[in-house]
Amino acid sequence: MNSKSLSLAELAALVRDLNASGTSVVAPVPTRSLCGADYRPITELNQATLNGALPRRSLKELFLPASEVLLRYRLKKNDVELLPVPTTFTPQVILGARPCDAAGVAVLDRVMGWDYRDELWFGRRAATTIVSLACPGFDGVCFCHAVGLNPDASLGSDVLLVPRGADAYWAMPVTDKGEALLARGTFADLVEPAEVTAFRKAAEEKVAKNLASLPSGFHTFMAQSFDHPEFKAIASRCHGCGACAAVCPTCHCFDIVDEPEGMEGGARRRNWDFCATCKFTVHASGHNPRATQNERFRQRVMHKFSIYPQRFDAVLCTGCGRCVRACPAGMDLPEVLGHLYAAQAAGGVS
Amino acid sequence: MNIYQPHLMRIDEVVAETSDTQTFKLSFKDPQVAQQFKFLAGQFGEYSVFGEGECTFCIASSPTREGYIECSFKAAGKVTQSLKRLSVGDTIGFRGPYGNNFPLEQMNGHSVVFVAGGIGLAPVRSVIWNVLDLRDQFKNVTIIYGARSVGDLVYKRELAAWAVRHDVKLWTTVDPGGQTADWKGEVGFVPAIVEKAAPVATDAYAVVCGPPVMIKFTLPVLAKLGFAEERIYTTLENRMKCGLGKCGRCNIGPVYVCKDGPVFSAAQIKALPPEY
Amino acid sequence: MKELQDLAHKLLSDGAVTVVMGWEQGPRGVRPAMITTAANSHRLIFDPRCVHNLATYLNPRRSHLKSLGKPAIVVKGCDAKAVAGLIRESQIKREDVVIIGVRCGGVVRKPTQAPELTTDTVSPRCGRCDAREPKLVDHLVGPALPEPPKTCSVDMVARLEQMPVQERWAFWREELSRCIRCHACREICPMCFCSTCVADKSRPQWIETSATPRANLAWQMTRVMHMAGRCVGCGECTRACPAEIPLGLILAHVAQSVEQRFSYRVSDDPTLPAPVGAFKTDDAQEFIL
User: Fold this and answer.
1) Residue B270 lies in a domain
2) Are C205 and B81 inside 8 Å of each other by CB?
């Protein structure tokens, strides 16, 4: 399919058409304080903000909710009845996703499909079409370029929109699902116009300044640097609060708990969990393999830049910068990466 | 199929091993699942008490004994304490088998030395019975088992059965001070008894499970006896939730205990960062 | 600033302390700093971006900081209340910490903002401040500063109190629906010092860990009750919350209730017993049947 031209009015009509046909539409909606946005369902395009407000939390919760029922159980005398939850979901279109958020979902497909296929994740994936909106570069924290992405990356997106002025978009279908979505309207073909190319180039240049790209062999260096002095006091100011993981588009660790609902039954839920917390790895005996904040923060950095690349051939970070913006103690991942780059350049392993 | 959905199992038998340790004999309620279920020695499962949650431990019976599985657990946390309150006829959940297994194919045709401490005998027991049920395929079999006190020894009936077998050399020991007046076994810590028993390392494999401190001091003894690190196997017990490589909790560096383990050779463990 | 840096230099080079907990300029805005050598004392700063309540780092749960040895800590008046709270509740000993007080003229809302204080940028809590000069100090540094400008934000505590119950309930239901139970509010709180939090206890499970409406309410209400007479109003929980839930509003309301009912206002005097820790025969107790 050729790329298309979409006016704001056509996009608004598409939102109405989707809602009318039973497909829910999710988009960044301004918060009450208007200082940010949340990904939320919309019925009309004018409820959304497509002008660059950064959703406070990433897209991951639309596929891996903060708390989700895995199954329900009913207790009978000596017996248990299990009530499975559905693994098929209502179709939804996410409109105006950040490319870094969409990429996060694609990166997570790898672990969610590793040997055992997580049907709750992939059920939602199958039901969802992601229309991302190329980003002009949000602020000086953004480092998507450093992790091999870009403000206009199409990884994880089904359609990529790039703004053309204030009220029109250039739409590039990325997947079959994206083509199917664009086939719902009669949108005019449009070869990538110069202003779109210029927008994309300007955004890339802006973000590339924030942090140099991961050096080649970085994950190997990291794998050999478990005891590097850089990690010794790396997290002295870290509170272990887990806010970084909560807002991260790729942090996916979870807990599984049973919670009664009345006397006869209840729900088994999976809840987000946070490697920064003391409780995460502690054994029933009280022994904790990651005893202090330094080890826990190292685990987070290692998971993203060494373990995941080794196991799944992808960096578990899309450079969205939310962890930096959310951290109440000023922990700064790009700064840490900069130090590690320098350590690698200096000859690496201690 | 939702991978987090457990199979239902009936508790067919409960054995109180010690004051806080029990063994359940379990069978699948669904005959089709029972028919298809296969596992290997060393693999583990997620056992659930509905309303309390899931907990992780190995399958303690041998894959050569079909139609049921056994598990042994110590009432330590929320779920294991609830498990302890169940009795014959009750229903629990089971997901598994997960993880890798002890390399029985490699061990075949060789001697095997089993070293276990406390409840660490549970995963070892699966291998022991696997080997004993195929006894003619293995050379010498030595079992060295210790616990804090006589009361803390698990599988007492089986210890008695192994003691009288001529094709098994069994050493049992309790920590100093843990013996009773009629205790006929050894008194001393497991590593010391391994040194005393001095099993021949030639053509032999070792399987070692128990508290971290026991493993730490047993490995050098086995090395001194001539066991290569590649021929010593143990299990790691990092905390896990999913058992499926998803929940991000059990990793030690790039190694996921739930997927790459729980069985590791001493050589493999030496290469890991010390987060276990 | 020089006065602060010189003092830190002296304390570290004399060996009086082995770490000075203060603020430094980070890559983006101001952030906490652990200064362990006299040579690094020049990194210490103090200005209206020094929002963080560093007393949290004295909390005994910060096990990774024990290896840094004896601390000196830089505190604003509001932070000094938290140090006093930790002493009052026997979490630390007065003699185990050197307290460097700074005179404060108000802080901005976020440490990444510009340091200029205006009616827009000033933290709303500074309008309620009664401790611009800390008293619980070993050293007091910095010039006396003018009063901070009054915030232009509406007084949400007052507004919520005037709301009909249904409306207030709707407000909190909506806000708490975003809680994801990361417990960042607890982890950053200088006064959340329990070695095992009630929310982490599983035998019995007092509070469910899921991010469901009833569990979120149970958690936040429990924490608020535990903070009665303890909360120093530093606003760190609100700042840390990745869901941006205005937790400080409930805590401010509770602080007002404690003051009205028990004539107790949290201060930096560690010898004043807190209402939860002291028995008084004339305490209001009409709720006891």
Assistant:
1) no
2) no
Q: How confident is the model at residue A350 (pLDDT cuts 50, 70, 90)?
A: very low
Structure tokens at A37: 């946005």
Whether residue B199 sits in one domain with residue B145: yes
Range of the domain at B80: 7-98
B108 and B231 inside one domain: yes
A3's CB contacts (< 8 A; 6+ apart) are A170, A171, A172, A173, A189, A190, A191, A192
Min Cα distance A326 → chain C (Å) is 6
Domain boundary among B67, B98, B129: B98
Does residue B24 form part of some domain? yes
Which residue type is seen at B199? Answer: P
CB contact under 8 A, A57 and C52: no
CB contact under 8 A, A67 and C30: no
**What is this model's ipTM?**
0.92
* φ/ψ (deg, to 5) at B249: -115, -35
Q: How far is CA A281 from the centre of its chain?
A: 24
Inspect the interface and report whether the beta carbons of A330 and C244 lie closer than 8 Å.
no
Amino acid at site A238: C
pLDDT at residue C289 in the model: 58
Euclidean distance between CA atoms A69 and A176, whole angstroms: 31
| Average pLDDT, consecutive stretches of 10 residues, N- to C-terminus, chain C (289 residues) | 95 97 96 96 97 95 90 96 95 96 95 94 90 95 93 88 94 91 94 92 88 92 93 93 92 91 91 85 73
| Bond before C204 cis per omega within 30 degrees | yes
Residue in chain B closest to A284 (alpha carbons) equals B77
C229 within 8 A of C258, measured Cβ to Cβ:
yes
Residue B184 in any domain: the answer is yes
Chain A residues touching C28 at Cβ < 8 A: 140-141, 324, 330, 332
The answer to whether residue A68 neighbours chain B at the CB level (below 8 Å) is no
Q: Residue A247: list chain C partners with CB under 8 A.
A: 242
Mean pLDDT of chain A: 93
Residue A74's region, left for phi above 0, alpha for psi from -120 to 50, else beta, is beta
What's the CA angle centered on B184, arms B180 and B188, to 5 degrees? Answer: 75
- Which one of C196, C202, C209 makes the best mutation probe of the B interface by having the most chain B beta carbons within 10 Å? C202
Show me where the domains of chain A are located: 4-57+86-208, 218-345
| B259 domain residue, yes or no | no
Name which of A240, A219, A243, A194 is nearest A301 in CA terms.
A219
C30 chain-A contacts, CB cut-off 8 A: 330
